[in-house]
Amino acid sequence: MECIGCDAEACGVDFSDDEDEAGPRSPGAHGEHGSPSSSRKGLLSVDGKYDNYTASFRHVVMFTFKETATEEERTVAKQALAALPGVVHNKRGEPIIRNFSFGNDLQNQPSNFDFAIVADFAAPEDYQLYRVHRDHQKLSKAMLEPIIDKRAAVQIPLVPAGITIQVRRGMLRHVVLFKWRGDVTDEQLMALRHGLSLLPEEIPQVVNFFFGDNTNSAVDFDFCIVADFDNYKDYQIYGTHPAHKSLSASVLAPMVQERAGVQFLL
């Protein structure tokens, strides 16, 4: 079992200065028990600016593309995704997406998915509006479904509700979903949540760290972790940190039946 969704030690590639195709960010994160690492509060990024926003609910979806999907089809889909935050409004004409990020997997380690989308909302009700919105439905059916081979998704609450999240363009977002074995116990889940809640304080390179149980019974995956880092080197430190590796080996690995992972740049 790899350390929580990554094998940073095995990869020496530095993506800290790379650009990736990713969506526009409405001002736009942490665990089921998430809050910014205390050592990061008030910290300025390398370009001197973080965007701050508040959110209480997160939608995460990953895709693998069909081998027949062309670069033009992927580009058109990404352009449509980039436009969503500006057109998905409630009945009062107010935008409902608090933050919207997406991108190709960086391929800096073995990953089993090609692309990820992370969308944050003020409340689960706003996510439901997004899910049925005509522009989202049109994009999904006309542009994504024809080129997608496999999909994995979860929806999780962000705790505490209304938490302030800081992001900036160029950060690395590490996203991993898990499906549990049938014999996983409540005690194991409690131990995992407790261990994860300690990681941001033990690893100051973590900017945002969210995790939680999936709230959508219609999807197959049970749990999600999303971690943000200022650059790839900080992500490597996280991946090789003793606290992270110990939690992965002793607590997480015995629980996992299936894993889905993507790393992309904001």
Task: Describe the overall structure.
- This protein is α+β, with helices and mostly antiparallel strands.
- It has a single domain, classed as Alpha-Beta Plaits (2-Layer Sandwich), CATH 3.30.70.100.
- It is built from 6 helices and 10 strands; from the N terminus they run E-E-H-E-E-H-H-E-E-E-H-E-E-H-H-E.
- It has helices at 71-87, 124-132, 134-144, 186-202, 232-240, 242-252, and strands at 51-55, 57-65, 97-104, 115-121, 148-157, 163-167, 172-180, 206-213, 223-229, 256-265.
- It has a 4-stranded antiparallel β-sheet with strand order 3-4-2-5. A 4-stranded antiparallel β-sheet has the order 8-9-7-10, covered by helices on one side. A two-stranded antiparallel ribbon has the order 1-6.
- Helix 1 runs antiparallel to helix 3 (134-144) and helix 4 (186-202) runs antiparallel to helix 6 (242-252).
What descriptors fit this protein?
about 270 residues; alpha+beta; Alpha-Beta Plaits; four-stranded antiparallel β-sheet; 6 helices; 10 strands; about 30% helix; globular
How is the topology of this model organized?
Layout: E1 51-55, E2 57-65, H1 71-87, E3 97-104, E4 115-121, H2 124-132, H3 134-144, E5 148-157, E6 163-167, E7 172-180, H4 186-202, E8 206-213, E9 223-229, H5 232-240, H6 242-252, E10 256-265
Antiparallel strand pairs: 1-6, 2-4, 2-5, 3-4, 7-9, 7-10, 8-9
